[in-house]
Amino acid sequence: MAGETLGLVGESGCGKSVSALSLMRLIPDPPGKTVGGEVLFDGEDILQIDMDDMRRIRGAKMAMVFQEPMTSLNPVLTLDRQLTETIQLHLGKSRDEARKDAVDLLVRVGISDAERRIRQYPHQFSGGMRQRVMIAMALSCNPQLIIADEPTTALDVTIQAQILELMKSLTLDLGVALIIITHNLGVVARYADRVNVMYAGKIIERGSALEIYTNPRHPYTVGLLDSVPRLDQRLTDQEGQAAKLVPIEGQPPDMPQTAATTPAAEDVLLDVRGLKMYFPVTSGILFQRAVAYIKAIDGVNFTVRRGETLGLVGESGCGKTTTGRCILRLYRPTEGEIWFNGVNIAQSKTGQMRAMRRQMQIIFQDPYSSLNPRMTAGNIIGEPLAVHGLVNNKREYRERVAELLNNVGLNPYMADRFPHEFSGGQRQRIGVARALSVDPDFIVCDEPVSALDVSIQAQIINLLEDLQERYNLTYLFIAHDLSVVRHISDRVAVMYLGKIVEVADRNAIYENPQHPYTRALLSAVPIPDPVLDAQRERIILTGEVPSPLNPPSGCVFHPRCPIVTDDCSRVNPEARQVLPDHIAACINVPGYGPY
To answer: Gene3D superfamilies from the entry (predicted)?
Structure first.
């Protein structure tokens, strides 16, 4: 119905995305074929119209936000070309008018410095920023229906809240219908009017959001809701044991579901000191020179103890992924020290780093672009085994690959399939298996479960925790889902615009946050219970995230801070201990002291 938001939820591979593509007539024939049914849009069965008429509807009346922001944008065209094309084609506007609209759309979805950034290419944006560009493209022609396939998967919670509030306001103000396809049940609880639950290609339960969440009737729906990490849940049971996530299948019920309250050991495995990573902005054709610098990381300090999980959270583009890549030396830092196992690897040479690769691994954020499309899943997972000489023969190789596939919830017979034959969630699990294959000491988990539905998400979290306990693994867990971070992390570091603004034990961060940015982040996390969610205090940050090309003076958060004072614009606060084992970088926090 016009003005209504419908949520479509279910496990990876159940048919959610195929349903959306079928509505848009985007399933190629062959191999796919629509064999029956009707799709009535504005009273007309669009399955019966010719493709020329369908192209006039797509973009203008029906728009779609695709699941894969990393691969949905054309890598050889600037954003200017890609955004204005749709506006000119469907609305008949001039080039200048279309460009003005495109800049306004980028500002509307929270991309700072839009006049400059519209001239850039997709690879110059983070995953979350690319998703915002996709949303801007969908909104460009004011459609009647928007189909959003995992629209906020790559976004942090504050931007997620802004984007979903924007989409929801469109449905109310303009009468736009919205279909949200997601595995985040909290998002559906907050923003959907009705919910359809899908399993194995069929709708198995439907109803209002309140009915589905307060009185689910189908056992699968009950299982989905039990699989969701929640901010309002206890982290321990009445006996003081670790609380448990409940995967629908594949894990024993007595497996510990959260990390230990304290790390396994106090010795520091990773010590990051004064880390900076500046990317030059160049000018010139024949002789390029740096005219400015993007300060992606600007003086980051933190430690990770052996056997613990440090969660790193913050908005898209704040420097989380860049921090992880600097630690692994995928980027050479501009400045600072990275002490790993007693060795400063910040300036180590390539030959020296090769010996460290087996000890340090990464699970990348985007499962599609990080998997070689010409290699089978088995070869992708098995390649590190061969490179590091961890198997003696082909039989051991095949057995180890089969074991890893099984551990991440994939059938061993899938080893011969190629990446395009898997869903987004299944591709991410292949990436997890590849990282685990060499039994590393330290893993950078860069959004490892962001593309997974909630039941598989619970399985992967359980798997990571089990491996950590068994082998004393250490994780840097980068994520924008604060509910997941709370379940898996021992301590949490909050990052904003290239700086760490708060670090504390996970209970202290969630129960007594000190920095105003942390409080805003937590208030933006939806809880999958419409009644409880409506009772919570919500802090919607105003303004845009400043550009790292020209960060604000003083505290970088002061332009958006709800408790800003005059001193905030001139004092650059260092991170200090404000409570026992609790660090914050805000001069207005009680206990900060003189500055």
So the answer is: P-loop containing nucleotide triphosphate hydrolases
Contact (CB, 8 A) for 441 and 388: no
Q: Beta strand 442-446 with 268-283: parallel, antiparallel or unpaired?
A: unpaired
**Domains of the chain by start residue, with CATH:** 5-226 (3.40.50.300), 235-359+457-466+480-595 (3.40.50.300), 363-439 (no CATH)
In the prediction, which pLDDT does 196 show?
A: 94
Residue 101 pLDDT class (50, 70, 90 cuts): very high
Residue 257, number of CB atoms within 10 A of its CB: 23
H and E: helices and strands count for the chain: 21, 20
Instruction: List phi, psi (to 5°) of 213.
Output: -85, -30
Alpha-carbon gap, residue 488 to 260, rounded angstroms: 9
Would the pLDDT of 321 be above 70?
yes
Cα angle: 32, vertex 37, 41; to 5 degrees: 100
SS3 336: strand
Torsion angle, alpha carbons of 165, 103, 133, 77, to 10: 170
Angle between helices 79-91 and 95-108 (to 10 degrees): 120
pLDDT, residue 156, reads: 66
Q: Which amino acid is at 559?
A: P
Longest dimension (CA), the chain: 72
Q: What is the C-alpha separation between 281 and 289, in angstroms, rounded?
A: 8
CA distance 254 to 361: 28
pLDDT at 263: 42
Model pLDDT, residue 516: 94
| 68 neighbors 451 (Cβ within 8 angstroms) | no
Using DSSP's 3-state secondary structure scheme, residue 87 falls into helix
**366-397 pLDDT, tens digit each:** 777 889 999 999 999 999 998 888 888 999 99
235: tokens are 């982290």
Which of 24-38, 244-258, 548-562 reaches the highest mean pLDDT?
Answer: 548-562
Per the DSSP assignment, residues forming a β-bridge with 360 are 442
- How would you class 372 by CB atoms within 10 Å of its CB: exposed for 0-12, middle for 13-18, buried for 19 or more? exposed
Percent of the chain's residues with pLDDT above 70 = 91
Q: Can you tell me the distance from the alpha carbon of 183 to that of 163, in angstroms, rounded to the nearest whole number?
A: 17
